[in-house]
Amino acid sequence: MKNEAELRAQMVNYGRDLFLRGYATGGAGNLSIRLDDCRILATPTGASLGRLVAEALSVVTMEGEHLSGDRPSKEVDFHRAIYHAAPEAKAIVHLHSTHLTALSCKKHINTENVLQAFTPYYVMRVGQLPCIPYFRPGSEEIAPALAEKAIKHRAILMANHGAVVYGKDLLDAGDNYEELEETAKLFNLIPNEELRFLSTDEVNELNQVFG
């Protein structure tokens, strides 16, 4: 198990990796890691993921008290809400990546599951993708809306905003997010009438084999 210094270094390195590969731009997006049952390590407000500094990362309690580091992102409240709702969540990645954000801006989506499965890897990594309604950034309504979905889903789309994904650690959350972004890219590239979606039996088989 990594200590806090190692987790800080991991967040800095992974944030830079996301930035360099174009998943994050400017000061958009945020990351967090559950340090223990009481504390969260999070990226500071307005911080570019490409220029994070280990010593400046924010530490807040699960109740929202700022303990150390720079002031946390205003969106740390919905990170806390997800951790409370989903004890299996140990890290969260929230980005405004191109293809998921494009998907979040589309009309007439199925908000219960925006992406019907058409690759096995989406099923194995994500499963389903519900979408919460649009709320202005920083709205107090975001946290409870995400928490409700996080009880059963590790990935959630935010209308006209982006996506939030959690995992068993930061790299797992990141891998889940990246698989989701690639799925959204394929979905946006292939005309819907040309997609061959997986059948219910095929999805059930993946869930039985890979859990």
TrEMBL record:
E.C. numbers: 4.1.1.104
Uppermost EC category: lyase
Keyword Isomerase: no
Keyword field: Carbohydrate metabolism, Lyase, Metal-binding, Zinc
SUPFAM superfamilies named among the record's database cross-references: AraD/HMP-PK domain-like
GO CC, alphabetical: cytosol
Key word Kinase present: no
Every Class II aldolase/adducin N-terminal domain range: 9-188
Residues passing through the membrane, by range: none
Stored InterPro entries: Aldolase_class_II_sugar_metab, Aldolase_II/adducin_N, Aldolase_II/adducin_N_sf, OtnC
Catalytic activity: 3-dehydro-4-O-phospho-D-erythronate + H(+) = dihydroxyacetone phosphate + CO2; 3-dehydro-4-O-phospho-L-erythronate + H(+) = dihydroxyacetone phosphate + CO2
Cofactor(s) this protein cannot do without: Zn(2+)
GO MF term set: aldehyde-lyase activity; metal ion binding
Record-level GO BP terms: pentose catabolic process
Stated family: Belongs to the aldolase class II family. AraD/FucA subfamily.
PANTHER family reported for this sequence: 3-OXO-TETRONATE 4-PHOSPHATE DECARBOXYLASE-RELATED (PTHR22789:SF0), FUCULOSE PHOSPHATE ALDOLASE (PTHR22789)
Function according to Swiss-Prot or TrEMBL: Catalyzes the decarboxylation of 3-oxo-tetronate 4-phosphate to dihydroxyacetone phosphate (DHAP) and CO(2).
Protein name as annotated: 3-oxo-tetronate 4-phosphate decarboxylase
Origin species: Grimontia celer
